[in-house]
Amino acid sequence: MLSYIITMLLVGLFAGLLGALLGLGGGIVVTPVLTLIFNVDIKHAVGASIIAVLATSSGSAIAYLKDDMLNLRLAMFLEIFTTLGAFVGAMLSLVLDSKVLFLLYGGLLTFQAFNMYQKIRAGKENLAAVEEDALAAKLNLGGRYYDKSSGELVTYQLTKVPQGSLVMFCAGILSALLGIGAGAFKVLAMDTVMKMPLKASSATSNFMMGVTATASAVFYIFSGHINPVLATPIAIGVIFGSLLGSKMMPYIPVSLLRLIFIVVLLVSGLQMFLRGF
């Protein structure tokens, strides 16, 4: 029993570290590890993963808010759409087959890996070329932060806010279905659609996932898919890992973050596709 608890603590620590660095909530590690290595039923793995997402958000949000990397105004606006999506996804999770969940997960991860590769090929982001749309201007959704890796003050504006909001609704659905916080889709909405810098997107995504996961967790608790013996040590490890990751992220170059992102997404996506088929 002790070795089991230590193993789950280490899984949580690694998940929290990656989750805080990449804005993915930690579920991107927890669900594949539990299902593929420890043969946990995917719905119980998703339940534990939802708790891990809550822990990652709690552990990293304070540090990102202190560093001004977290865009709180944007997060509160987009949470309207992700929370609605989470309720829809949680209800769908009760009727969908497990194989469908595996394939959805694999498709999501592979798509985001390709998106990150395109970003690396494009080179350094040209934030000055982003044309702020009317909704972003009216709600004052832009922001700025100090990038400790480059020593520069990064100021950014946002575009295509309605399209990004639609992606956020889909992210909420996937969050509840897959137990990953759907950070890949949240980062996609902000980084790719709304042209928000990756570091600010990751920090804001981490905060948002805690709110979205809370909506999903209610359904998983009442459906009996959260096992306290499994979820508790993972959550404790995730909190410590996310605190460490949030301290490291401001100092890591964006290009390196994207490379880590691609490797994690491709490995996990391939494994989930194989399990689904």
From TrEMBL:
It is a multi-pass membrane protein. It holds the Pfam family TauE. It is found in: Cell membrane. The lineage of its organism: Bacteria, Bacillati, Bacillota, Bacilli, Lactobacillales. Keywords: Cell membrane, Membrane, Transmembrane, Transmembrane helix, Transport. The chain crosses the membrane at residues 45-65, 72-94, 100-117, 166-185, 205-222, 229-249, 255-274. It comes from the Bacteria. Belongs to the 4-toluene sulfonate uptake permease (TSUP) (TC 2.A.102) family. The keyword Transmembrane applies. This is Probable membrane transporter protein. The keyword Cell division does not apply. GO terms for cellular component: plasma membrane.
